[in-house]
Design a protein that fits this description.
Layout: E1 9-27, E2 33-53, E3 56-61, H1 76-88, E4 93-99, H2 110-126, H3 132-142, H4 146-151, E5 154-158, E6 163-166, E7 173-178, H5 186-199, H6 215-223, H7 226-232, E8 234-235, H8 238-244, H9 248-257, E9 262-265, E10 272-276, H10 279-291, E11 297-301, E12 307-310
Parallel strand pairs: 1-8, 3-4
Antiparallel strand pairs: 1-2, 1-12, 2-4, 2-5, 5-6, 7-10, 7-11, 9-10
Helix pairs in contact: 1-2, 2-3, 5-8, 6-7
Bound molecules: adenosine-5'-triphosphate (ATP).
Length: about 300
């Protein structure tokens, strides 16, 4: 009788995300804000290569400034591997190599994509065979955006953003992304939103703002209609991101001037996401922004969540 053979190397790919809609409610006692959001996974990917090992180690390639990504237990992918090991009683280790393309601290959930990819990769490498539900549960313990990186597609997120329901989306949406060289801290942007609201009359014990994803957003996605979606894209974190980084306003204006249907700060920023009418118009907008000296990327969504490329 032969023992089941597990792979020695597993390669998993997971997508970055855009928040097509992001409504932020009140701050709970645990520090998290109530959210109503629509995520769309886009074709800008993190690749995680997991190699069998006795201990835990992590390396990163693809970032301009390596000091921006921790390689110890602060790294979300490392925490994902260790969480899976402790949840399953696995006693070995793993060497994780992160090949990053999603901008670091860019509001596109790059660290969350790494964590989702590490969970899927280690589960295959170690043969722990967790059910999708159990993987989702571990993902939610790692961070609010990790479950979405596992599932991908287009989804409504409520609670902290981790309670997911798939949203029907027809066809493909073309986006142009403009990352910034320097990231923004998500906790600082939320804190800035709280301060801004307090200064503008909202009291700490006000009931949470009404938190529902507007029906027109869901209808536009279902119809696959970029014009309708452009008309109702919204992000409550855009105001604090612009207060923190006023130059983003110029980026948004440049993209709109180049012909994008709409431009929005992605998540907590500073990446700006432009929705375009067609792949051709996205290439045009990308070219115009590049000619103006900005770095612009053309991506599309929705795309699948974390998946094994080779094992
Ligand atoms: P969030 O998901 O909180 O909105 P983000 O998408 O804006 O974050 P990330 O690139 O995920 O930004 O990283 C935010 C911070 O988390 C980084 O500045 C870094 O210090 C830390 N971090 C932990 N793990 C990772 C990882 N695997 N990749 C990048 N940053 C990580």
């Amino acid at each position: 009788m032969s023992l089941a053979a597990f792979p020695e190397v597993v390669h998993v790919r997971a997508p970055g995300k855009i928040n097509v809609y992001l409504g932020v409610g009140g701050r709970h006692d645990d520090g998290y804000h109530a959210l109503a959001t629509v995520f769309q996974a886009v074709s800008l990917y993190e690749d995680v290569i997991a190699r069998d090992a006795d201990d835990f180690a992590l390396s990163v390639v693809g970032v301009a400034d390596p000091s921006t990504v921790p390689v110890d237990d602060r790294n979300l992918a490392m925490r994902a591997a260790k969480l899976l090991a402790s949840a399953t009683g696995y006693t070995g280790g793993v060497h994780l190599e992160l090949r990053k393309s999603v901008p670091v601290a860019g509001g596109m959930g790059g660290g969350s994509a790494d964590a989702a990819a590490a969970l899927v990769a280690c589960d295959a490498l170690w043969g722990t065979g967790l059910s999708p539900n159990r993987l989702h549960e571990l993902a939610a313990r790692l961070g609010a955006d990790v479950p979405f990186a596992l599932h991908g597609g287009t989804a409504v997120g409520t609670g902290r953003g981790d309670q997911l329901n798939p949203a029907l989306a027809h066809g493909r949406f073309d986006w142009v992304l403009v990352p910034s060289e320097e990231g923004l801290s998500t906790p600082e942007i939320y804190a800035r939103l709280d301060t801004h609201r307090a200064e503008n009359g909202a009291l700490a014990d006000d009931p949470p703002l009404s938190l529902d994803v507007p029906i027109p957003v869901l209808q536009a996605l279902r119809a696959g209609d970029p014009h309708s979606l452009a008309a109702c894209m919204f992000n409550d974190l855009e105001v604090p991101a612009l207060l923190e980084r006023p130059a983003l306003d110029d980026v948004i204006n440049d993209g709109l001037h180049a012909g994008a249907l709409s431009g929005i700060v992605s998540g907590s920023g500073p990446t700006v996401a432009f929705l375009c009418e067609t792949p051709e118009s996205a290439r045009y907008v990308q070219g115009e922004l590049n000619d103006a000296g900005r770095t612009a990327l053309h991506v599309h969504g929705p795309v699948p969540g974390a998946r094994i490329i080779s094992a």
